[in-house]
Amino acid sequence: MKGLRAPITVFDERQRTQAIGARRTLVAGARAAAIGAVLTLAGWPPGASAQDTAYVGDGKCIVCHVDDSRHFSHTRHAKIFRLNPKTERERQGCEACHGPGSKHVANALDKGTIIGFTREWGTPVEVQNAQCLGCHEGGQRSYWAGSPHALNRIACSDCHSPMARLSKNGLMRTALVSDTCALCHQQQRAEFQRRSHMPLPEGKMSCADCHNPHGSVTRPLLKADSVNETCTVCHAEKRGPFLWEHAPVRESCLNCHVPHGSNNDFLLVGARPFICQQCHSPPLGHPGAFYNASETAAAAQQPGGNQSPRVIGRGCQNCHSQIHGSNHPSRARFQR
Ligand code: HEC
Ligand code: HEC
Ligand code: HEC
Ligand code: HEC
Ligand code: HEC
Ligand code: HEC
Ligand code: HEC
Ligand code: HEC
Ligand code: HEC
Ligand code: HEC
User: Fold this and answer.
1) Which of 141, 161, 187, 273 is a Cys-bridge partner for 315, taking CB atoms 3.0 to 4.6 Å apart?
2) What is the pLDDT of residue 288?
3) How far is the CA of 246 from the centre of ligand 9 (A)?
4) Which residue, of 159, 193, 209, is where some domain finishes?
C-alpha cells in the first residue's frame, strides 16, 4: 500500500472496529439517521452549527481561490451547478460540497471552519463522504456502507478529484482508472506485467470492468453476482449452457485461471498437463500419466529417444480440445 499525499492510516484496527460498529448500525436500518449521527458526533466543523454558519455563494470564494475555481469550471459539476442547477443544493456551488462558508471567509486559517477533502486539512473521512453521498447515494454506491473501501476509511476523494477534469469520465485522480487503483494496489498492477495477461496495461480495459470499487455483494468487490458472470460479460462463448459440461468450469473460472496475470500461457494457474492431472488421476479415466518416462520431450532428446505424440503441445488437449464444454452429441469427453 502506498499513500497518496500523506500516509493513509487505513489499517488502524481501532478505526476499523469503529467502522464495523457503524456498519451494524447502518444494517439495522437507520441509514440516513446514522449519517446524521456521525456528523453530529464528529461535531464537524467544531463548535459550528447550521444556525451560526451561513452560505455565502461562489462569488465570495472565488475572490481568494481564483485558480481552484478556474480548474473547477471544466468539470461536469461546475457546468451543472453554475449553468443548470436542478436543486437548491446544486445552486450552492462550492458550498454544496464544502459546506457553508461564512465562518471560513471570516477566518480562513482555522481548519475547523470549512469541510476540506485533502488529507492534510483533517476533516474526518465520514464527514467528507457524507457530503458526496448526500447527492450520490444509491445506484452504483448501494453497497458502499460496509464495503472494504468504506471500512478502511477510503475517501471518495482518494479516487475522485472533482476540482479539475483530469480524466475523460468519472473525475478520476488520473487519466486512466487503473492508474488511480494502482496508487494503492501496486501488487495487482505488478501481476498485470506477467507474461500472460488481459490487455489492461495496454489501456483496453480497466480494473473497473471487473470490480465495483464502490461496493458489491460479491467478493472481492466483483461487479457481477459471481466470478463466472464477471468473466462471461466479455467471454460469452464460455458461458454455455453446454450439452457436456466440464464441472470445474461451471463452478468457477478461477479453478484454472488467475484473473490478473500468470506466467503460464492463457492465464492458467499451472502448466499443462499438470493442471489437468492434479484433478484427474486413476481410477478416473485412463492413466493420468499417459506416457512413460522414456516418452517425454526431454527423453526424446536422447539418442534413440521417442516422444509420445500425446505429450506434444497441449498434452491432454490434443484429444480433449473443448475443455470449457462441448455441444457435440457424441463427445462427452470434450474431444470436439
Ligand atoms: C479571504 C480569502 C478566502 C476566502 C474568501 C475563502 N477562502 Fe478558502 N481558504 C483560504 C485560505 C488562506 C485557506 C488556507 C489554505 C491553506 O492552508 O493551504 C483556505 C482553505 C480552504 C479550503 C481547504 C483546502 C484544503 O487544503 O483542503 C477549502 C475547501 C476552501 N478554502 C474553500 C473555500 C470556499 C468554499 C470558500 C467560499 C465559501 C472560500 N474557501 C473562501 C482563503 C479564503
Ligand atoms: C463536487 C464537490 C466539490 C465542489 C462543488 C467544489 N469542491 Fe473544492 N474540493 C473538492 C474535493 C473532493 C477536493 C479535494 C481534491 C483533491 O484532493 O484533489 C477539493 C479541494 C479544494 C481545495 C483544496 C485544493 C488543493 O489542491 O489543496 C480548495 C481550496 C477548494 N476545493 C475550493 C473550492 C472552491 C473555491 C469551489 C467552488 C469554485 C469548490 N472547491 C467546489 C470537492 C468540491
Ligand atoms: C449537490 C449535489 C452533488 C454533490 C454534493 C456532489 N455531486 Fe457529484 N454529481 C452531481 C451531479 C448532478 C452530477 C451529474 C450527474 C449526471 O450527469 O448524471 C454529478 C457527477 C459526478 C461524477 C461523474 C462526473 C463525470 O464527469 O462523469 C462524479 C465522479 C461525482 N459526481 C463525484 C462526486 C464526489 C466525489 C462528490 C463529493 C466530493 C460529489 N460528486 C458531490 C451532484 C453532486
Ligand atoms: C476506490 C476508488 C473509488 C472510490 C473510493 C470512489 N469511487 Fe466513485 N468511481 C470510481 C470509478 C473507477 C468510477 C468509474 C469511472 C469511469 O466510469 O470511468 C467511479 C464513478 C463514480 C461516479 C459516476 C458514475 C455514477 O455512478 O454515476 C460517481 C457519481 C461516483 N463515482 C461517486 C463516488 C462517491 C460519492 C464516492 C464516495 C462515497 C466514490 N465515488 C468513491 C472509483 C471510486
Ligand atoms: C487510497 C487507497 C486505495 C485506492 C486508490 C484503491 N483502493 Fe482498493 N483497497 C484499498 C484498501 C485499504 C483495501 C482493503 C485492503 C484489505 O482489506 O486488505 C482495498 C481493497 C480492495 C479490494 C479487495 C476487496 C476484498 O473484498 O478483499 C478490491 C477488489 C479493490 N480494493 C479494488 C480497487 C479498485 C478497482 C480501485 C480503483 C478503482 C481501488 N481499489 C482503489 C485501498 C485503495
Ligand atoms: C478480468 C477481471 C479483473 C480485472 C480486470 C481486475 N480484477 Fe481484481 N480480481 C478479479 C477476480 C476474479 C478476483 C478474485 C481472485 C481470487 O479470488 O483469487 C480479483 C481480486 C482482486 C483483489 C483481492 C486480492 C487479490 O489479489 O486476490 C484486489 C485487491 C483486486 N482484485 C484489485 C484489482 C485491481 C487494482 C485491478 C486493476 C489493476 C484489478 N483487480 C483488475 C478480477 C479482475
Ligand atoms: C471487459 C472484458 C473482459 C472481461 C470482463 C474478462 N476478460 Fe478475459 N480477456 C479480455 C480481452 C480483451 C482479452 C484478450 C483477447 C485477445 O487478445 O484476443 C482477454 C483474454 C483472456 C484470456 C486469454 C489470455 C491469453 O493469454 O491469451 C483468458 C484465459 C481470459 N481472458 C480469462 C478471463 C477470466 C477468467 C475472466 C473473469 C475473471 C475474464 N477473462 C474477464 C476481456 C475480458
Ligand atoms: C478446467 C480448467 C479450466 C476452467 C475451469 C476454465 N478454463 Fe479457460 N482455458 C483452459 C485451458 C486449458 C485453456 C487453454 C486454451 C484451450 O486450449 O482451450 C483455456 C483458455 C481460455 C481462454 C483463451 C482461449 C479461448 O478459448 O478463447 C479464455 C478466454 C478462457 N479460457 C476463459 C475461461 C472462462 C471465462 C472460464 C469460466 C467460465 C474458464 N475459462 C474456465 C482451462 C480452463
Ligand atoms: C479443478 C479440478 C479439475 C481440473 C483442473 C480439470 N478437471 Fe476435468 N473434470 C473435473 C471433474 C470434477 C469432472 C467431472 C467428473 C465426473 O463427472 O465424474 C471432469 C470431467 C472431465 C472429463 C470428462 C470425464 C467424463 O467422465 O465425462 C474430461 C475428458 C476432462 N475432465 C478432462 C480434463 C482436462 C483435459 C483438463 C485439463 C485441461 C481437466 N479436465 C482439468 C475436474 C477437473
Ligand atoms: C490420445 C488422445 C488422448 C489424450 C492425449 C488424452 N486422452 Fe483422455 N481420453 C481419450 C479418449 C479417447 C477417452 C474416452 C475413453 C472412453 O470413453 O472409454 C478419454 C477419456 C478421458 C476421461 C474420462 C474417462 C472415463 O473413464 O470416463 C478423462 C477424465 C480423461 N480422458 C482425462 C485425460 C487427461 C487428464 C489427459 C492428459 C493427462 C488425457 N485425458 C489425455 C483420449 C485421450
Assistant:
1) 273
2) 59
3) 6
4) 159
